[in-house]
Task: structure prediction
Amino acid sequence: MIYEFPDPAAPLRQGDIFPRMPRVDISLANLVVMGNGGETDETSWDELGREATKFTIIAGVTQVPAVIITQDCDAIRAPDVTLCEIKPFAQFFSTALPSTPKKWTRFLQQQTINNWKWFYFPASDRLGFAERMVADFLSTIRVPREELEALRTTRSGRLDATADEHFRERLSDFYRRYPYNEWYPFTREEFEAYCEGLDADEMARVEPYPYQR
Result:
């Protein structure tokens, strides 16, 4: 398996997996602010920002598994550490997932090439992953480093050397990726041929350039 289980006293590292991290959910349109006396008032972020720079709000917090994405050198000395939420793999797909090992291998190979927004975690009873999971690079959590260090014994595991190297590269690719329309260099004839292979949802996102009309 792609996991290892470090000594509880081992320093924090990129790839460390924590089973319970706080994901804070707030609404910018409806914030509940608490005053010094415990009284509350509902307002919006826009209105609140004009009056104060520091305040206390009531927010929803969900416990979620998460993995450290901060580089090793920063994970042992920076004030804060950043983690990515780990979510069920199935949440990212609206269609039925493969049902056989052979289909899974082909599916994962394709998704690894085409999807840069997440990193795959196989199921693991020891980590508490009853199903296939992914680290969602779009869902990040920032926590104080020293306080996370105090919770090192709660780590459920970490990525092994091979997986961590791949994880690091996936993160790098995600944050430096350049979004572009893959059809922009096509001639009109090539663009028409390209469109023939698209379904209705894909076609809705494709807009020809003037020289392809």
Remarks:
- The longest strand covers residues 133-144.
- The radius of gyration is 22 Å.
